[in-house]
């Protein structure tokens, strides 16, 4: 069976599965070059079909999700989601009705699906798919949170697990708790959209003058710069109730209450209080789910699962053996979640190999060489790329790294990366303020060999995290070796790479271990802040030219800043 997953909302994209295996997965932003794209993913569909060497007419099933009222309106009138995209990303000035627009958006998203919205959504999807040549495929439209939960369950590798999804809203819900047993997911409880922890944190992000659905990670980082208060007035706004969240007001009204409280606190304190409330409520719900089911493994998905401080606390619970976070946890992962839902229906219990998330387009050596020659750039081909790049890193040089197929998801995992040595705080500051142009308090992350990770992290527990989805505490005596990638609270979010992994990136980490004594690099995404991760060789060269980085390792070729 050939299944094409499609998501046409926030961070739209497509994913292709053939006979139960993932062949390709791409988000539209990487192709349209608009961060967190909302348009129908026509280019992503074409890319997935090309990577799978398939024509549109060969697809058996198109799987997608979400048919609530707000999503149906956006499908029926695409200009409405484009207008909100421009406002949310602050590409247009606020108008006199901007506040009312946002209030209306939050009110509308709380409405769940109904027979009319389902019928209209299917008709709109059929029309869009017909334009893409997919009119002959069977269309399956699933529940939003079911797709999040299925993605986490299938990719976790667990036979039994508590599966928790938490996001803003989708199909009238904001969170679900399920148990995976006997090859099937059974939902235990669900939180209605009215009580959304994701919307709670969105409002906090917006009140701190950041972009909601985009900058929540900055709020989490800022929270590390404030001490825990004696009392937390935000605690009354978001509480656990059994396996559900409960907010003091619906999402569209919660903003006003948060705004009144924010007035009395500095930004970092307000961020800290919001982070603490989210942590306490979620941890309580997970503990209750584990207690009721007796299942000690936890799988997480949904946008709130990107909060690494939260996932770390869950991992460290004494009653929890292991935690898996689906690596494309937000709505950008729904295309693959929908495809996995169809595959699970067809094949029963399905365990999938994420293939290191190298699921996007790749480019051959000859193609890269032709691009460099056409651009008139000088380059050479070292006999050992990993050794040559590690030499540059040890000279405190910043190296752009473009290798293999593009990563799927929000993290650079050694395919489209900017690299530096991990032990220099000055390099971190230069990257943040000059090259990446990010806020100063947002930390960078390391990629670390597994053998070193066991030694570096004091709270190591369970299997290694291959996808940068979890926080770990760095041992005091090891912190100088990771000075450039540690948060102010002593934690970091590592990608943990197996010592025996093949490929240039693992070879680079082994080369760094010989030189530095620890197999680690600072690894951040290959882009200018605010732009999507680069996809093509041309885009990598453009970032190299704009950024002022000293070197670019692209395929087997190496350029330096003087070339």
Give the structure's gist in a few sentences.
The protein is of the alpha/beta class and 563 residues long. It has helices at 29-32, 42-51, 69-76, 78-88, 98-109, 115-131, 144-156, 197-207, 216-223, 251-262, 267-293, 308-315, 334-347, 365-375, 385-394, 425-435, 450-456, 504-516, 537-547; strands at residues 2-7, 13-18, 21-27, 61-65, 138-142, 161-170, 173-181, 184-192, 238-241, 244-247, 297-301, 322-325, 399-402, 416-420, 445-449, 472-473, 491-492, 495-497, 520-525, 551-554, 557-560.
Give an overview of the whole structure.
It is globular and about 65 Å long. It is of the alpha/beta class. β1 (2-7) and β2 (13-18) form a beta hairpin. Strands 18-15-19-14-13-20-21 form a seven-stranded mixed β-sheet, sandwiched between helices. Strands 3-2-1-4-5 form a five-stranded mixed β-sheet, sandwiched between helices. The longest helix is centred in the middle third of the chain and has 27 residues, at 267-293. It has 19 helices and 21 strands. The mean pLDDT is 94. Helix content is 39%, strand content 19%. α3 runs parallel beside α6. The chain folds into three domains: 2-146 and 335-357, ATPase, nucleotide binding domain (Nucleotidyltransferase, domain 5), CATH 3.30.420.40; 156-330, Nucleotidyltransferase, domain 5 (2-Layer Sandwich); 365-560, DHBP synthase, CATH 3.90.870.20.
């Amino acid at each position: 069976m050939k299944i094409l997953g499609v998501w046409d909302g926030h961070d739209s994209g497509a994913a292709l599965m053939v006979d139960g295996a993932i062949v390709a997965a791409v988000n539209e932003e990487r192709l349209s070059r608009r961060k967190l794209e909302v348009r129908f993913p026509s280019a992503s569909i074409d890319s997935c079909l090309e990577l799978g060497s398939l024509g549109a007419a060969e697809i058996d099933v198109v799987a997608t999700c979400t048919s609530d009222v707000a999503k149906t309106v956006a499908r029926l009138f695409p200009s409405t989601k484009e207008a909100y995209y421009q406002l949310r990303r602050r590409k247009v000035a606020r108008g006199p009705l901007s506040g009312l627009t946002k209030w209306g958006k939050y009110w509308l998203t709380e409405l769940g699906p109904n027979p009319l919205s389902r019928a209209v959504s299917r008709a709109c999807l059929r029309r869009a798919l017909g334009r893409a040549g997919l009119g002959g495929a069977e269309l399956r439209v699933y529940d939003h949170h079911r797709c999040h939960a299925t993605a986490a369950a299938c990719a976790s590798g667990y036979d039994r697990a508590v599966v928790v999804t938490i996001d803003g809203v989708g199909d009238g819900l904001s969170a679900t708790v399920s148990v995976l047993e006997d090859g099937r997911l059974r939902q235990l409880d669900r939180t209605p959209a009215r009580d959304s922890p994701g919307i709670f944190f969105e409002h906090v992000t917006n009140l701190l003058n950041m972009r909601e659905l985009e900058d929540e990670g900055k709020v989490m980082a800022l929270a590390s710069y404030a001490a825990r208060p004696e009392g937390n007035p935000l605690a009354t706004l978001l509480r656990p109730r059994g396996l559900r969240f409960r907010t003091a007001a619906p999402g569209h009204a919660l903003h006003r209450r948060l705004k009144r409280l924010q007035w009395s606190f500095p930004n970092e304190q307000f961020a800290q209080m919001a982070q603490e409330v989210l942590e306490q409520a979620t941890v309580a719900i997970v503990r209750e789910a584990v207690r009721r089911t007796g299942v000690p493994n936890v799988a997480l998905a949904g946008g709130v699962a990107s909060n690494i401080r939260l996932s770390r606390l869950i991992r460290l619970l004494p009653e929890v053996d292991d935690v898996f976070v689906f690596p494309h946890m937000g709505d950008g992962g729904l295309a693959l979640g929908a495809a996995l839902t169809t595959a699970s229906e067809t094949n029963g219990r399905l365990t999938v190999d994420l293939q290191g998330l190298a699921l996007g387009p790749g480019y051959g050596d000859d193609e890269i060489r032709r691009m460099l020659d056409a651009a008139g750039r000088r380059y050479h081909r070292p006999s050992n790329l990993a050794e040559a790049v590690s030499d540059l890193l040890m000279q405190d040089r910043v190296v752009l790294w473009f290798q293999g197929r593009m990563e799927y998801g929000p993290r650079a995992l050694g395919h489209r990366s900017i690299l530096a040595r991990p032990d220099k705080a000055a390099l971190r500051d230069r990257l943040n303020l000059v090259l990446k142009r990010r806020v100063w308090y947002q930390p960078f992350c390391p990629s670390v060999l597994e053998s070193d990770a066991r030694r570096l992290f004091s709270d190591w527990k369970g299997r290694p995290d291959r996808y940068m989805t979890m926080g770990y505490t760095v041992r005091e005596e090891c912190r100088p070796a990771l000075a450039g990638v540690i948060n102010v609270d002593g934690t970091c979010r590592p990608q943990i790479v197996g010592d025996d992994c093949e490929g240039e990136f693992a070879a680079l980490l082994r080369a760094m271990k010989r030189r530095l004594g620890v197999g680690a690099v600072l690894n951040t995404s290959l882009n200018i802040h605010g732009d999507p991760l680069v996809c093509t060789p041309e885009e990598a060269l453009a970032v190299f030219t704009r950024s002022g980085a000293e070197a670019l390792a692209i395929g087997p070729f190496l350029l330096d800043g003087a070339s």
